[in-house]
């Protein structure tokens, strides 16, 4: 049965036999693929979500150098997991290759990568991880609360300073007539966490117009 293609592309580096085998089963794959074995070609890697590497061609030093420099792409190695390689990969699939297994794992990898992408926000030199409730810079991080996540997200995406009453309404869904000390207390605690861990007192600014990042 012909499967509807998913919206992601796989760049397959393989021997002639490997590429031909997958080409014959192409209609069963849930991804679009380009089969290639010439590492010297000028490839536009940004067009691909996944790089698939067959163990039969990893002796090619040009290919190893090319693959080792590729960042932000999921790499799948098809071959023996015990084999020593000069590049890191995200998933190993041993031969004989099961198309069912390959399809499932490609979908799972893409879904996981998309979930991670959608759950993180780059805020200046920091990364806000909404899923793990972490605010990090390089290798250091602090744990933050759900309300602190919402505060950072709101202040970052708003293009103008927000008053305490506006923040109270958007984050807590409270009436603008409610006690705004809630906002002040939460921002004070969040600022203190950031200052203590990252020695940064400038990320969240406060002027007469309101709070902003």
Fold topology:
Elements: E1 9-13, H1 16-24, E2 32-36, E3 50-54, H2 61-69, E4 74-78, E5 91-93, H3 99-118, E6 120-123, E7 126-129, E8 134-137, E9 140-143, H4 146-157, H5 164-172, H6 181-198, E10 205-207, E11 210-212
Helix pairs in contact: 4-5, 5-6
What report would you give on this structure?
The chain has two domains: 9-118, Rossmann fold (3-Layer(aba) Sandwich), CATH 3.40.50.2300; 120-212, Arc Repressor Mutant, subunit A (Orthogonal Bundle), CATH 1.10.10. A hairpin with a 2-residue loop joins strand 8 (134-137) and strand 9. Helices cover 36% and strands 21% of the residues. It has helices at 16-24, 61-69, 99-118, 146-157, 164-172, 181-198; strands spanning 9-13, 32-36, 50-54, 74-78, 91-93, 120-123, 126-129, 134-137, 140-143, 205-207, 210-212. It is an alpha/beta fold and 213 residues long. The chain has a five-stranded parallel beta sheet, with helices on one face. Helix 4 (146-157) crosses helix 5 (164-172) and helix 5 (164-172) crosses helix 6.
Which properties best describe this structure?
single chain, 213 residues, alpha/beta, Rossmann fold, five-stranded parallel β-sheet, four-stranded antiparallel β-sheet, 6 helices
Q: pLDDT below 50 for ≥5 consecutive residues: which ranges? A: none
CATH topology tier name of the largest domain: Rossmann fold
* Helix segment tally: 6
Outline: elongated
SSE arrangement, N to C: EHEEHEEHEEEEHHHEE
